[in-house]
Amino acid sequence: MYSYCHKYTSTYAVTNAATDVSVSNPQTDSITVSWTPIAGVYYMVQYSNGTSSMYKDSLDTRTQTSPQTISLPIPGAEYTVRVLAFNYMNSTLGGDGVESNNVTFTAVPSDVVPTRANPSGTNITLEWTYNDTHVVSGFRLNCIPAVGLCGDKRSPLDIPDNTVRTYTLPGATPGQDYNVSIQAYVNTTPGSVQSGWVEFDTVKLVPSDVVPTSANPSGTDITLDWTYNDTHVVSGFRLSCIPAVGLCGDRSSPLDIPDNTVRTYTLPGATPGQDYTVSIQAYVITTSDSVQSGWVEFDTVKLVPSDVVPTRANPSGTNINLEWTYDDTHVVSGFRLSCIPAVGLCGDRNSPLDIPDNTVRTYTLQGATPGQDYTVSIQAYVNTTSELCTEWMGGV
Question: Using alpha carbons only, what angle is made at residue 375 by residues 364 and 352, rounded to the nearest 5 degrees?
């Protein structure tokens, strides 16, 4: 009987592991791994981090090329990399591969922290903090869709100043949502060392559908009217006053009206003789990071000084004879009378009687009722639109 013996030799196992494994160019989201390759051998780079001791493949397929740049999921984390050697490119053949030495390193921390993205009209103002422990050249912004010179991550906007912590992007489109990210960089070359991209909250620009229609000063009050397109739901409206009127300050300390149905508002506490610049915007929430429309200005509000001085109200039968003085320093169009209850054409302050002559200092009201008490007031006005007036003065 003959017997045959066949010796089987596996060609799958690789006896030579990758040598001289090292890392370079550490960034927040990647690292470059190098080794000395051997002809005919295929390699897979793997990594693990402090959150898991399990190694993960970092390449889509095995390779014969060194170096390889791999992605890292956690900026600032500690990683360990190794290189496995195989006889075959096909990952279904060849067992587990031969391990190289391990190399441990720490990824670059992402120390850029977005703190605020404040849209206003066509502008987006960004604010952030940065840990100065890591010296960088500046910051890089990306915008999707583009805002002015700020494009996506292939065409970002560089801010070559590492002391900057705020930046305003002009040219945004009202009604558009934007995704804005920031990273720190070391130089302006394409291969610059940089932190990972960190996103601001999605920036939503409310359309500027607020339309100021009237700013009516009267005495120490300013009554504002506006319209708003209800297509865009907002939380309320915000007023800015320069100089301040009561609780209404400039755009850094505005007055919120948390009611989206309001279309008129009276500001008390204005100073007669003072000019005011009043603006309005719609907002979605009441936090400092609120999504809001652009500021829209009312016409400049001019308060005429209260230089009208009633001197006499003399009733006679059905007539009331009025007299007053006025300081001609402030040129006005005429005088306005209010009567409660009404006397002839002179009604209350919503339906007063205008005397369109600034030289008049006396007037007789006709049609009063004997035995009736009347409250009569006067103010000077600049035009007949009821928009520029002094405070109401006097009474009978």
Answer: 65
Angstrom distance (rounded) from CA 264 to CA 277 = 17
CB distance 222 to 278 below 8 Å: yes
* Beta carbons within 10 angstroms of residue 132's beta carbon: 10
Tokens of 56: 């993960």
Question: CA nearest 327: which of 348, 308, 347?
Answer: 308
Whole-number percent of the chain with pLDDT over 90: 33
Torsion of CA 174, 179, 180, 182, to 10 degrees: 180
Cβ contact 211:227 at 8 Å? yes
Q: Are 182 and 112 in contact (CB under 8 A)?
A: yes
The enclosing H or E element of 310 equals strand 308-316
Give the pLDDT band (50/70/90) at residue 194: low
- CA dist 63 and 35 (Å) reads 12
Q: What is the pLDDT of residues 15-68, one digit of tens each?
A: 688 999 999 887 767 889 999 999 889 999 999 886 666 888 888 888 989 999
Domains of the chain by range and CATH?
Answer: 19-106 (2.60.40.10), 112-204 (2.60.40.10), 210-302 (2.60.40.10), 308-381 (2.60.40.10)
* Of 206, 284, 277, 209, residue with least CA distance to 242: 277
Is 146 in a helix, a strand, or coil?
Answer: coil
In 3D space, the residue among 202, 300, 201 whose CA is nearest the CA of residue 243 turns out to be 300
Residue 275: what pLDDT?
86
User: Whole-prediction pTM value?
Assistant: 0.39
Question: pLDDT tens-digit profile of 88-141?
Answer: 877 665 567 888 888 887 776 667 888 888 877 678 899 998 876 666 788 999
* Distance in angstroms (rounded) separating the CA atoms of residues 153 and 166: 19
Non-local (6+) Cβ contacts of 188 within 8 A are 137, 138, 158, 160
3-state secondary structure of 366: strand
The rounded Cα 271 to chain-centroid distance in angstroms is: 32
Amino acid at 66: S
